[in-house]
Design goal:
Blueprint: E1 5-7, E2 13-15, H1 34-40, H2 51-71, E3 93-94, E4 98-99, H3 116-131, H4 140-157, H5 172-182, H6 192-197, H7 208-211
Antiparallel strand pairs: 1-2, 3-4
């Protein structure tokens, strides 16, 4: 590299002020203490859990797993799969975004879905409405059950990748429909036939500002 250009292997140069390396990222939060990670609902070592919290979430996840297997019996018999990485608790955040203990912070990009652009747009809309007080959160006990169900679905449907409870790769439509419904916006916006035959894109949400419901 030079001050204002990038030098390629063949010696040619491309004028540039900045080089952005899209190399991915690791969902680690070293600036939070163990206690803060637990309180926020971030994945953490099971031994860092307070005993009461550990018992609560163990019970919630057990109940949620039974509901998932009742809703989707085929998941009772998963195919051979790789064991997940080292054990942590699940992500205990509403919609994989909002902490139940601190309404001043949200975590975008945690949920793994098949279209990151659409997911990011939907999450940004939801988070804006949430901070503006335009998302009616369910009672805490119901929110915990909703989180546990999403965790259990992730673990059972994606046994190699879903241990943390935020892997919902093929649930893109369901997930973004849910976010839009909670802020009072339509998720399917192209017309009934077009919505059936065309892919779901981030651009589908381009006109939501005109509706003025989430700002």
């Amino acid at each position: 590299m030079k001050a204002n250009s990038i030098v390629l292997d063949d010696g040619s140069e491309i004028a540039a002020d900045v080089l952005l390396c899209g190399t991915g990222w690791s969902a680690q939060y070293p600036f939070f203490s163990k206690q803060q990670a637990c309180e926020l609902g971030l994945p953490h070592r099971p031994e860092d859990d307070p005993p009461d919290e550990s018992r609560l979430w163990s019970a919630l996840l057990k109940q949620a797993e039974q509901r998932v297997l009742s809703d989707f019996p085929i998941l009772q018999h998963p195919p051979p799969h790789n064991a997940p990485d080292g054990p942590t608790t699940t992500l205990r955040m509403y919609n994989c975004i909002a902490s139940l203990n601190d309404p001043s912070v949200v975590f975008l990009g945690r949920a793994h879905l098949s279209n990151s652009f659409r997911t990011s747009e939907a999450q940004a809309i939801w988070a804006t409405a949430y901070f503006d007080g335009n998302v009616k959160m369910p009672p805490r006990a119901q929110a915990q059950r909703d989180i546990a169900y999403m965790n259990a679905l992730s673990k059972k449907r994606y046994p190699s990748h879903g241990a943390v409870g935020d892997y919902l790769f093929f649930e893109l439509v369901w997930y973004t429909d849910r976010l839009m419904d909670e802020v009072g916006l339509k998720s399917h916006r192209k017309g009934w036939l077009t919505d059936w035959v065309e892919p779901c894109l981030a651009a589908d949400f381009k006109d939501v500002k005109k509706e003025g419901k989430y700002v």
